[in-house]
Write a structure and sequence with these properties.
The radius of gyration is 21 Å and the shape is flat. A hairpin with a 2-residue loop joins strand 3 and strand 4. By secondary structure, it is mainly beta. Helices cover 0% and strands 56% of the residues.
Amino acid sequence: KTVILEFEGVYTHSMVYLNGNYVGGCPHGYTAFTVTADPFLKYGEENEIKVMAKTHLDSRWYPGMGIYRNVNLLVGELCHITIYGQKIVTLNADENGANLLVEVELENKNYKNVSAFVTTTVSDASGKVVAKNSAPLTLYGNETEHLSQRLYVPDAKLWNVEEPYLYTVMTTVTEGEKLLDEVSCAFGIRTLSLDPEHGLRMNGKELKLRGACVHHDNGLLG
């Protein structure tokens, strides 16, 4: 199996050790990062994960220290979709339909080639599949491959601030009847444009920007 540790947030200058081996870290306190664990694991035995963090004197406000967000243990097949390996782009869209581009990054950690089949579907808010694309892909041993798939969604419901309608895209990777990996993501179909005359426009309509400066998810700062 492939075993990955995902750290969503460690403040700061983190260093991760697995069974005494340095396996990775991140110097930035607000950046998620991953480390590959399987080469350093003792299977069938107890394993020790140690995370070190240092704040130094580099903070303009008190953020706290250490692991402040989730740590996820991800276990998958040797042939899998990489972490954050699914990207969805709206090429063009209106009320009549939308053209989407889904890009997938796949990794094969086997020594042998894998003949896979990659299927991507788009489902509406009720769960009905409204678009589908399937393609064969040969994944060479110890290589990373990229696949792009185009999908057309008829009668697309556009995402906007008044009606934040969400679709779900699901990508599955199979080898024969065996499911190797799958990943899903909720997303909105919308277009954005920016120019000096009309400012920011979403789906062709002008949109005023509203927001706030929020440090560290607002936290204790109020």
